[in-house]
Amino acid sequence: VTPTLTPTPSPTPVLAIIDVGESGAVHLRAEPDRNAVSIKLLPNGTVNEVLADDPVDTGSEIWIHVRTVEGEEGWILQVSIVTATPAPNWEG
């Protein structure tokens, strides 16, 4: 009898879309800090993958670790995004 391989499903990535209104773009930062190096600007409508890291709460802001479609990783402010699918449980 030949064993049958059972595929392991991979988790659905959480996608987030940049939406910062009239300012038009948000900085993708190297670290979760407004003074950290800006890797690039992400304009409204940009889709990013939210990485599995826990958000970083600095006391006044919450930062989310993301990966762009180009593969760049960095941090953006949680208030800069709308979640596309599915909503992560950040209040755990």
Overview of the molecule:
By secondary structure, this protein is mostly beta strands. 0% of the residues lie in helices and 42% in strands. The chain is built from no helices and eight strands. The strands form two sheets. Strands 1, 4, 5, 6, 7 and 8 form a six-stranded antiparallel β-sheet that branches. A two-stranded antiparallel sheet has the order 2-3. The mean pLDDT is 87.
Give the topology.
Blueprint: E1 14-18, E2 25-29, E3 38-43, E4 47-50, E5 56-57, E6 62-68, E7 73-77, E8 81-85
Antiparallel strand pairs: 1-4, 1-8, 2-3, 4-6, 5-6, 6-7
Which segments are poorly predicted (pLDDT under 50) over 5 or more consecutive residues?
none
What sort of overall outline do the alpha carbons produce when their principal axes are compared?
Answer: elongated
**Amino-to-carboxy terminus distance:** 46 Å
Strand percent estimate: 35-45%
Number of helices: 0
| Biggest sheet layout | 6 strands, antiparallel
How are helices and strands ordered from N to C? EEEEEEEE
Structural class comes to mainly beta
> How many β-strands, per DSSP?
8
Mind telling me the C-alpha Rg? Answer: 16 Å
Helix content: under 10%
- Summed over residues and divided by their number, the pLDDT gives a mean of 87
